[in-house]
Write a structure and sequence with these properties.
heterotrimer, A mainly alpha (about 280), B mainly alpha (about 300), C alpha+beta (about 350), B: about 300 residues, mainly alpha, MetI-like fold, 2 strands, about 5% strand, C: about 350 residues, alpha+beta, Rossmann fold, OB fold (Dihydrolipoamide Acetyltransferase, E2P), 2 domains, 6-stranded mixed sheet, 6-stranded antiparallel sheet, 20 strands, elongated, ABC_transporter_permease (chain B), membrane (chain B)
Chain lengths: ~280, ~300, ~350
């Protein structure tokens, strides 16, 4: 497969990839450029790849129509807490399942894995009732607690377990001989070596929290509390029609920071995901 | 030394006991979380499904299997299940074949391949709702896609307002959004196939296509299985795309199970029936996952 | 420094017993090698001494103190692992000072001890590097440095040379031996390589299938193996074993009669053992058909058929015979071994 290719085949492959790229790259490009077009230019025939006229007022309107800064902050701080919390909970559990011998560990692991079979959509009704009973409806607690401790973190625990299983046992034995207890072995030896897996878990968890949509619309009711995905769909005029250019401006602001982080750190992103326990 | 005295002289906190205590301490947050946020809700959802519960009417009555009878008699259910099946099947087939094609392309020795990898992967990190909004904008009757088609003299359909094209649209939008993940997993698997095997196959006279079919596919089959499970289970959870693009329409043509569940429970406030639909979703996920693990024994040729 | 004593030490995983009661006394400052085929339980025994495996029965004493229930860190031992187990995210100096750091030693004390150990092992110029920047031999030295830095009562080595190439292995063998002579710390060393065992040990413990087969000085095991297993395990190429019967006229075995020393008390069925290097070319010897000749330069190894038996001989002489031809050999009567056919034990 990986032989040196003839120039003709190379040109064909480049051509094929460029064509395939269109649906991957064009929407993002369209989103960014259209967000600075006046509404009348958005539906121009033929479509413009570069704005004929610039209109940045849409960006100001985003903040006038909704408490968008507040919503941005909501999404950001929730995603940050969920990411940090999941990293802690999952690395501890994954480590114990991989490395510590304790009675019923396999049975308990099977129970935890049930979380993979029970997506939060299945339990959304009782979760709503439970949080209603605890007075946590229209707060951010459901969006923080469930991902960190519930079903979404199980995948992270699984990834961490696979990583720790592959870590040489000798390192920990050496640490025991050197005088470390379990907690210090975990903290000083195992965790620093698990950076690639932790990175992958962080990326997955952040994106999952950042994209969460069903849960916010079920649990949150006031615009002050909304998260970004929910807020994006709320830019409608009095008749319920979408205010496209404003919506695209808000979508651009939602997408760009993560996209920039990805482009800067794409090597870590891609390789981190590829080299976790996902392979089996 | 007799066994009895030997035991008496041992401290209670032996190495093994201390370690076991540490183990329980480490898994405690996760286990307690699973009990509170997964197992108890799962029990509750079953309990609710045995009740007629209308929040607006403030009624909560035990009705036994009535909700399940209602499920079987629900005239909408066949449509919902069909829509779910078409969506999931279309998504898995398109996603996996495109992911494999892209992975094979990215596995070639070409300059600047990392740039292509980055671009193909980029939709994964674009906010889901943002991505979907852009597509819903492009798929409008007077939107960008039909605009481009008209440049070639083709009159495109009203994508989101025609049943067939609406389903195609939600599938395709979702495929482009997430195919990058599977692509990367396949790429890693392809790069894990020992080079000597290809060299040996070439010495044996196998061409590129035969090498792919007889060496590559069998060796990456564990990854194919794993990604297909993740993709299928993920496809059953799809919600935001439907809510933004079609709201389940036109008619009920894109109302998949989760969207129907959301409507019944949170728009019509039928929590009892919504819970019954949750149980159905759980059973489908469980059966599919189980079936795929069973399939592993027959289809996966090679495993470490 | 201390003596180390194992008293009917047993290990079982559930029903499966892997060590069936091991008794060994190791004197203060002694270098003892545990040797045996893979799966014989030697590594498990070492790990039990270290405290990395629990002890099912019996007692392990270090310096007269029962350590069965002590954590590894409380046993005052240091261990060198097969894959070195250097912490990849720490520099050489940090790796070496790590155990002292976690025993509350002061910075100055750690620095001093690390420098002392690094000087002994010639590691001073590597202290700021990370394990991935080191060669196999250098990693091996760092692993040893980490062990000696704390001045423990007992050193434990778990097949430390098995990842090195043949040449480096010989060098490191000498270094470990030299280190032991210099520091005089009680050492238990596990290997499956009998040459390592022979060249390094004060005493060798030969293990097989969870039992101790024989304990003794290297040459004692070579000269007087206690049973068939030890006889076959120690020495390379392996001892020739021929089963037959002790009779008046010699040892009768499948078509040949091998000579026996005069005044032998034993009789009956037995196994006749003769090392390849103890076969002598002699015109009055037994006729053997040459199958294969392998000259190494300093000596010649000959595979041949004697009666119905395939045997090997090693000779200082250069041999011009071709495969299929006949040479005449006789055993050195002072160097033959006889083993009981029933018990496999040595017969005098």
């Amino acid at each position: 497969m990986k032989t040196d290719l003839s120039p003709r085949i190379k040109v064909a492959l480049y051509g094929l990839m460029c064509v395939l790229l269109i649906p991957f790259v064009f929407p993002t490009w369209w989103m960014i450029t259209s967000s600075v077009k006046p509404i009348s230019d958005i539906f121009a025939f033929p479509p413009d790849l570069w704005p004929r006229r610039f209109d940045f007022s849409t960006y100001a309107q985003v903040f006038e129509l909704q408490p968008f800064a507040r919503q941005y902050w909501n999404s950001a701080y929730i995603a940050a807490i969920v990411t940090a919390g999941t990293m802690i909970v999952s690395s501890m559990a994954g480590y114990a399942f991989a490395r510590i011998k304790f009675p019923f560990s396999n049975a308990i692991f099977m129970v935890v894995l049930l979380g993979l079979l029970i997506p939060s959509e299945v339990t959304i009704v009782p979760l709503f009732q439970m949080f209603l009973g605890w007075g946590m409806i229209n707060t951010h607690w459901p969006l923080i607690l469930v991902p960190i401790f519930g079903a979404p973190s199980v995948f992270a625990t699984f990834v961490m377990r696979q990583f720790f299983i592959a870590l040489p046992t000798e390192l920990e034995e050496a640490a025991r001989v050197d005088g470390l207890g379990r907690f210090k072995i975990f903290w000083i030896i195992a965790l620093p070596l698990a950076k690639p897996a932790l990175g992958a878990v962080a990326i997955f968890t952040f994106l999952h929290s950042w994209n969460l949509y069903l849960e916010p619309i079920v649990f949150l009711s006031s615009t002050q509390m909304f998260t970004l995905p929910q807020a994006l769909t709320q830019f409608t005029d009095a008749y319920g029609g979408a205010m496209w250019n404003i919506q695209l401006a808000a979508a651009t602001m939602t997408a760009i920071p993560v996209l920039l982080v990805f482009i800067v750190a794409q090597k870590q992103f891609v390789e981190g995901l590829a080299h976790t326990g996902l392979k089996g | 030394m007799s066994l009895a005295t030997e035991k008496e002289t041992r401290p209670f906190w032996t190495i093994a006991r201390r370690d076991a205590a540490a183990g329980y301490l480490f898994i405690a947050p996760q286990l307690i979380g699973i009990v509170i946020f997964v197992l108890i809700p799962l029990g509750l959802v079953f309990w609710y499904s045995l009740h007629e519960w209308n929040v607006l009417a403030n009624s909560f009555n035990y009705v036994g299997a009535a909700n399940y009878q209602m499920l079987l008699a629900d005239p909408s259910l066949p449509q919902v299940l069909t829509a779910s099946a078409i969506f999931s099947a279309g998504l898995v087939v398109l996603n996996l074949s495109l992911a494999l094609l892209l992975a094979v392309l990215l596995d070639q020795k070409l300059k600047g391949i990392v740039v292509f990898r980055t671009l193909f992967f980029s939709p994964v990190v674009v906010s889901l709702v943002a991505w979907t909004i852009v597509w819903s904008f492009l798929l409008q009757n007077n939107g960008g896609i039909n605009g481009m088609l008209s440049a070639f003299g083709i009159e495109g359909p009203n994508w989101l307002r025609t049943p067939t094209t609406a389903m195609i649209s939600v599938v395709v939008v979702q495929v482009f959004k997430n195919v990058g993940l599977n692509m990367i997993l396949f790429l890693a698997a392809l790069q894990g196939v020992p080079k000597e095997l290809y060299e040996a196959a070439r010495v044996d006279g196998a061409g590129a296509f035969k090498q792919f079919r007889r060496i590559t596919l069998p060796l990456i089959s564990p990854t194919i299985l794993l990604t297909s499970i993740i993709t299928i289970v993920g496809s059953l959870q799809v919600f935001a795309q439907i809510a933004v693009l079609t709201q389940g329409g036109p008619g009920m043509s894109t109302t998949v199970l989760v969207y129907y569940l959301y409507q019944q429970a949170f728009q019509f406030h039928f929590f009892g029936y919504g819970s019954t639909l949750s149980i159905l979703l759980f059973v489908i996920v469980a059966v599919l996952t189980f079936a795929q693990w069973q399939l592993r024994k027959r289809v996966v040729f090679y495993e470490n | 420094m201390a003596n180390l004593s194992l008293k009917s030490v047993r290990k079982a995983y559930g029903e499966a017993s892997v060590l069936h009661g091991v008794d060994i006394d190791i004197a203060d400052g002694e270098f003892v090698v545990l040797v045996g085929p893979s799966g014989c339980g030697k590594s498990t025994l070492l790990r039990m001494i270290a405290g990395l495996e629990t002890i099912t029965g019996g007692a392990i004493e270090i310096g007269g103190r029962v350590v069965n229930d002590l954590e590894p860190k409380d046993r005052d031992i240091a261990m060198v692992f097969q894959n070195y187990a250097l912490y990849p995210h720490m520099s050489v100096a940090t790796n070496m000072g790590f155990s002292l750091e976690h025993r509350g030693a002061s910075k100055a004390e750690i620095a001093e001890r690390v420098k002392w150990a690094a000087d002994i092992l010639g590691l001073a110029y590597l202290l700021d590097r990370y394990p991935r920047q080191l060669s196999g031999g250098q990693r091996q030295r760092v692993a040893m440095g980490r062990a000696i830095v704390r001045n423990p009562q007992v050193f434990l080595f778990d097949e430390p040379l098995s990842n090195l190439d043949a040449k480096l292995r010989v060098v490191m063998r000498g270094e470990i031996k030299g280190l032991h002579q210099r520091l005089g710390v009680t050492t238990v060393y596990v290997t499956h390589d009998q040459v390592e065992a022979m060249t390094m040990a004060d005493r060798i413990v030969v293990m097989n299938a969870g039992k101790v087969e024989q304990v003794g000085a290297p040459l004692e095991l070579y000269d007087r193996p206690a049973n068939l297993f030890v006889a076959g395990f120690i020495g390379s190429p392996a001892m020739n074993m021929i089963s037959g019967e002790i009779t008046q006229g010699g040892f009768a075995a499948g078509g040949v009669t091998l000579p026996l020393p005069a005044g032998l008390g034993a009789s009956g069925r037995a196994t006749y053992g003769i090392r390849p290097e103890h076969l002598i070319l002699a015109d009055d010897g037994l006729a053997a058909t040459v199958n294969l000749i392998e000259p190494t330069g300093s000596e010649t190894q000959v595979a041949m058929t004697l009666g119905e038996h395939s045997i090997t001989g090693v000779f200082r002489e250069r041999i011009s015979a071709q495969p299929g031809e006949t040479i005449r050999v006789r055993p050195d009567l002072d160097a033959i071994h006889l083993f009981d056919a029933e018990t496999d034990n040595r017969v005098e």
